[in-house]
Every structure is written in C-alpha cells, then in structure tokens.
Specification:
The chain has about 425 residues and is of the alpha/beta class. The protein has helices at about 25-35, 40, 55-65, 70-80, 95-115, 125-135, 140-145, 190-200, 230-235, 250-260, 275-285, 290-315, 340-350, 355-365, 375-380, 380-400, 400-410; strands at about 15, 50-55, 150-160, 165-170, 185, 210, 215-220, 240-245, 330-335. Strands 1, 2, 3, 4, 5, 6, 7, 8 and 9 form a nine-stranded mixed sheet that branches. Strand 6 and strand 7 (about 215-220) form a beta hairpin. Helix 1 (about 25-35) packs antiparallel against helix 4.
Length: about 425
Amino acid sequence: MLPKNSPVPHPMSALVLTAGGARGAYQAGVMKRIAEIPAFADGAAPFSIITGASAGAINGSCIAANHQSLAAGAKLLVKLWSQLKANQVYRTDPLALVKNATNLVLDFGLGGLIGAGRVQSLMDSSPLYQFLNENLKLDGIRRAVKEGDLFALGITATGYHTGRAFTFVEGKQGHPLWNKSRRVALSAQIDIRHVLASAAIPIVFPPVQLPMGTASAYFGDGAMRLVTPLSPAIRLGADRLLAIGVRCQESANSLLRSEWSQDEDFASDLQRPPLSQICGTLMNAIFLDHLDSDLEHLKRMNAFVQEHEKLASLVDLVDEPEPDHEPLRIVTPMVISPSADIAIIAKTMQHRLPKSIRYMIDGLGTPDAQSADLTSYLLFDSSFTRELIQLGYRDAAHRIDEIEAFLRDPEPQTATTMEAN
C-alpha cells in the first residue's frame, strides 16, 4: 500500500520483531541460526525493511546498524542478551527501591494533601540507557540506508499524550509516511532515545522524552497501541514478512482448554488468580496477543484480495477510475514462534530475579506455572536469556530450509495472509 511515485523497489522482504521484555532473547537465537545460512553468512542482512517495538526495537536496531553483515549483527545480539544482568536494565540497589517505595507511600497515602506525582514508574531504568548507548552504535543505520542495502528501519513507540502509535522511520528519501486515527509515521534520525522509548514497559519503566519538531513529548512501550504489528513493515513497502514472535501457540491453546472445557470428565474449577497472574495477563495483552490477531485478520483480507484479483481478470476495468485509497496487495508472511512455553522456563528460574524484585512479585501471589508471565518479562538474567537463545536457535534450525527458501525466493509466493489498514 504505497503512495504514487514511491521509491520502493520490489520485491522487498521485511523483518518484523515483536515486543516481549526479557523474552526478546528468543529473537536473538533465531537470528543467530539464520545468520549461519551459507547464502547469508558472509553478506548483508536479507531484509530491505526492519521494524520493531519494545524488545523488538532493540533487536531490530542492532540488525539494522550492522546491516552490511548479518553475522556480525546476530553475533552482537547474542552477546548482549547472553551476558545480560538485571542491574544493566533497572536499578536493583536497596537505596533506589526504598526511595521509590517511599514516594509511592507519599503519593498514594498523602497525595491528596501534599500533592502527588513523585513516582514515574515502579523501577528506575536509567542503567538501560547506559547499556544501550555503550553497545549499540546506530551510525550503521545511516550508512546502510545511504549505501542502498536498507530501505527503512521503523521503531514504534506510544505517545502518552495522544495515545497513538508513533513509528519513527529512518530510510531512503521519499519513503512512505502515514497519519491514521491511531497510527502515525514520522521521519527521524533514530538514536538510543527512540529505542529506549519503544522499550519503556508501561508502569514498570518511566516515560522517555523525545523531540517532536520544535517541542518534545513523552513516549512509552511501542506495543501498547500497535495492535497490528505487521502494519509498519507493509506500509513501508514489504512484499514478504519474516515475523519473530515470543509466544508459544501450543501453550496458549492448552490454557484455553483448561479455562474452557466442555468435557465433564476433565472439567474443574480454576483457582482465583493472584494479582501477579492478572498483571501477567495484562502484559500478555500488550506484548503477545496482537501478532496472533493480526495474522488472523491478514488471512481474511488476503483471501478477499485473491478473490478480487480473480474477478478483475474476468472484467474489463480499463475505464474504472483510480481508487481514492491506497491499493491492497498480496503480502506473504512467515512467522517463527517458540515451541516451548517461556513462562514455564521463567518459573523454574524465578530465583534468578534480584531479591528485591522477587520479594515484590511474591507479594503479589503465586500463579500457576503456565501463567508466570510477569516473571518472564522482567527476568533479565543471563541464565534465562541463554535458555531462550538456545530455544530460538533450535526452533529456527528445525525450519531452516523453509526459512532459507522464503528469504531467497524473489518471487511472491502463494500468500497465506494479507494486511489491510
């Protein structure tokens, strides 16, 4: 769906990296295995477009900044995730936690009398800025765009004042932009602040201030309002999408079966969910559920477009006026998702959380193992992230022939899903 005279070459493949907090380590494992494909091992990344939100923004900007060498970008991703510690993401020292707890008491207990607004978030994420600034050299994005290897990088963040999903795009001159009711795309020279804003988990991490023309505004996690995570890549001109999610579909189906059973022999009443499980469900609604619903929508639209093309081939449309909307087109996606439940992996490693954070989560109640999602988003620990890297590597290895064929075939394949906005 492109404006007239768009400079977009065709066909183009896109890499779409979804949100997920600490679960983002899974994507590093997938990229590691893809980078080992002989056709790509010594060359540039096979993606003309890269988009991401939250943890996907961190991973996507890393691949884009090292676009001339997919192997180098994947290697750096694995290094960053496999050596990660919680204190590189948020402050875990007692002083910071006591200060935040005191401010919370003042705001909630005495805010009506002495004024509120002391607390911006549950955690201080200032270490994350230093960590990203030291390890991500984003000048490579501009070099890749200038040399023609990268058409565009899109990083999505949520505006806390408008509630819109803002996609900041750095790409070739004349790249598509849009302004919809809930989504806006702006040209930008992407730096660490954009990545940090996209990864600012709501409530957990504070808003990030970004320049907006002659003023500035505050932004948070890009997954909050991006209910169609494939949309930015397609609007930028992608014909094929490789999307890497962080949710195990089989686990989601298993939870559905346990919550809605029509078999009296297996039916049972579930326990009242603790607050930690409710928080985990809220995080899932922000981070995980959008990709599944987007794919379902795309599949329906793709079938519609295919039928329209069949009918158009039978009817003389020479005199038909041009539509006043962006034309729909077939877009072929491929999705890679975890084969194992990341929440269960996180539950077995919950002891790796900083004591203060573990104490806070324990105070919210103990969910069942399959619902320990809150822990999986906050467990920034090398033991956990290495497990996810290995999981991503194995899942990609299991489908590596399919992935290679998808990325190397320049012709549009028989579409299974489609995007329309």
